[in-house]
Amino acid sequence: MLRHIKDSWQKMKLLHLVPQVILLSAVLGSSASSANCLAPERPFVPSDPQAAREYADLIQNDFEDYIQDIQRYFQCLDRERARAFDEAREVSKEYGLFLDLIEE
Length: 104
Fold this sequence. Notes:
The chain has helices at residues 2-15, 18-33, 49-54, 56-103. The protein is mainly α. It folds into two domains: 1-33; 39-104, no CATH class. The chain starts with a helix and ends with a helix.
């Protein structure tokens, strides 16, 4: 019985951490989500020539949307690459400072 109470108490203590974990995930996720560059889906072209002609306007719009979306995707990748490069430079400097600190 005492063990059951102790286990329940441990679970309740962990439940108090849930809001903090959610908040931390939201904060970290928001900065990471800006780095998520999602490639657009390729436009669908029906294999049936009659269907392709029938839906030519829609298919053409899908291709034009894809071209705009892929350009935004490439821009996102460029921004993410630049961000990651800057971060790596900062981390490298911090590592150098850390090494200097522990060698003193």
